[in-house]
Amino acid sequence: MTDALHSQHTNTFPELLQKAGCSVVVSTYQAGKLILLRPDAASLNTHFVSLPKPMGVAYTQGRLSVGSGAQVIDYFNMNNVGPKIPPANTHDSAFLPRRTHTTGDIDIHEMGFDADGELWLVNTKMSCLCTLDLHHSVVPRWRPPFISGYDLTDRCHLNGLAMRDGQPRYVTALGTSDDPAGWRHDKAFGGMLMDMQREEFICRGLSMPHSPRWYRDQLWVLESGAGQLITINPDNGTKTVIAEVPGFCRGIDFIDRYALIGLSQVRETAVFAGLPLTQREQDRKCGVWIVDIETGQTVGFLVFSDGVQEIFSVQVLPWRYPALLDATDPLVSSSFSIPDSALAEFVAPDPRLLRFETALSHHRRHEFTQAITAYQAILQDEPEDVTTRYHLGVALSDTEQWDEAIRHLDQVTARQANHAEAHNSLGHAWAGKLNFEQALTHYDAAIQADQSYATAHFNRGCVKLLQGDFRNGWKDYEWRWKMPSFKAFNCPQPQWQGEDICDLTLLVHTEQGNGDALQFARFLPLARQRCKKLIVVCTEPLRLMFSAMSCVDEVRLPGNLPQDLFDVFCPIMSLPGALGVELDNLPTDLPYLRVPDQVVVPSLPASQRAKIGLVWAGSPTQQINHHRSCPLESMLALTRKTNFNFYSLQLPVSANDREQLAAANVTNLEIDLVSYAHTGKLALQLDMVVSVCTSVLHLAAGLGVPCVALLSPYADWRWMDDNDHSTWYPNTKVLRQSSSGDWDELMTRCAQYLGTQFD
């Protein structure tokens, strides 16, 4: 189990996109993401972009519009920016945010462009279709004839919009009520399809219809409550079932003879109770299904196995590998689209500045060799350029050339003694050399130069924690909330600092990675002893694990929480500081985690051989870091010891990885790793888990499963500076690389250790 959102797909999915030269954008308001599905050789690349409650998505002529919460965001394609996005020369297009229109909270559902390029959107709360202009939040343009007037009460749950011949023509709704939220009274079979032009019903009695589309001279509809793709004759309302799919279907687009359909799992709530789908499908899926509209057969699919439970829109884009940039991406501020007539009047940039910007661009894209070469070329001509020398030192440090980095950064501080950033980078370089006292000296100098330098405080805290100085380390570690990369928990209640809360309700929320949450769950029993009630807010993959802890009174998922739910809060990684935890009272009893009894997983076959679980890579963002991820080829060296049975606990697993696992006789458990509780129950059937620094390692160790932690020489502070054992997990053997990046030698030692334990 890794900390990202995960998916599996059939080989036919990327094949279809590759042949069509296109990609797909999917919205999921539940997860707060836009998801780009892009073919990448024989695999499918899934790229996630965070947005508040994205729902409706529409595309025309290089413009991608997204209904996101109370606004519509317009992204425009700039083809020339695509090749600049890392990895370079990979993307064939780039959508940059250019315009945001605030609509207010109208619950935007489907959207579409007419022949004139005007955007129409379904205003569900007002039960109407509307457009946008500069002077108003929205401009209502049409409402069903049974809706007597505009308000914000969602009378019929208008949701779907189909364009025909360049004009809005067909709509769907979940009811025909004119009363506030009246559609809920007959939600299971009260749905309708209407012809706007005629202002007549085409079909009624549908089960939660969504996503009408006019394609190939036919009217297509998703009857979501039945899990069916249907066609409806617009003249007489005759309904024909084309295909059944294993989920609540919503969002559809077409590529040739294939329909790409969004599927949601549908949570068991009053809204979805009593639907034909929930009675038919017990194992409902979330993902995108490919259906042959000529045969009704499913020919491919993508399934989300973690983090995403609901899909709203599915939109095909006519580019194979597009990028979608966040508003904070540096390329957004440095990319311009202007008329050709104005380009002729632009003056050439300053060559010196251009050289530096080029070097900096390489550095930002992690093209370190090019960046270092470019910085060095500048310094040959301008050896007194302190800024360039500082960035050269940072780039050298990024590539673990510690001594060279220190040499250049020392020159910077010799010229500017109060260069806080240079001292902070020197601290990083000395820590890389495992000289932590020198690192602390420079972190202290950085803080002396800038008392509010949050990154230096945080880095100093990490070194102190690594050394076992918990008292001072926890204090500095709290500076993480002032760093740009950390998003604080937003609420009016105060953060608990360790004061008496015996008559108060404490809310503890997870932060950073899921592995951190699993590691720091050991402090929850101590926190429960101090308060009247303990509530934990965590991500869905962790929910079952925290629910199984007897000290936790209630588990909530992130989102809008009632104001009176709790009195004080505490981030989970701030608990040890509030509790006064030091090295001599660190809770290390195992297990402190347990798996709920209701979790069901397959039983692994009985065997006289030891069962060994393998995890070789962290989340996709960590996999570029050779400190945190091991090449699968290197880890499979362990399987040469044939007297063990090996199991993969890795998620996700690429098609190439699956082939390698099969060739090495490693059983791939990926399909059963649907939550940390499921992963944990499988881990409990193993004799040992061998893993790089991932959440699965913390999960297995916390459950009491013997583990081997495979670490780099510069492992995270959580592993402290122990030689071959873990202070936090007495059941875990720590093996560190002799030299950075040398996984093969480490696997040789790991194989020897396994031999001593089980041979």
TrEMBL record:
InterPro entries, A to Z: CHP03032, TPR-like_helical_dom_sf, TPR_rpt, Ycf3
Limits of the Conserved hypothetical protein CHP03032 domain: 12-323
Keywords in alphabetical order: Repeat, TPR repeat
Coiled coil: none
TPR repeat ranges per the UniProt record: 420-453
Keyword flag Cell membrane: no
Signal peptide as annotated in the record: none
Pfam families: DUF4915, TPR_19
PANTHER family the record matches: TETRATRICOPEPTIDE REPEAT PROTEIN 6, UDP-N-ACETYLGLUCOSAMINE--PEPTIDE N-ACETYLGLUCOSAMINYLTRANSFERASE SPINDLY-RELATED
Name of the molecule in the record: Conserved hypothetical protein CHP03032 domain-containing protein
Organism: Arenicella chitinivorans
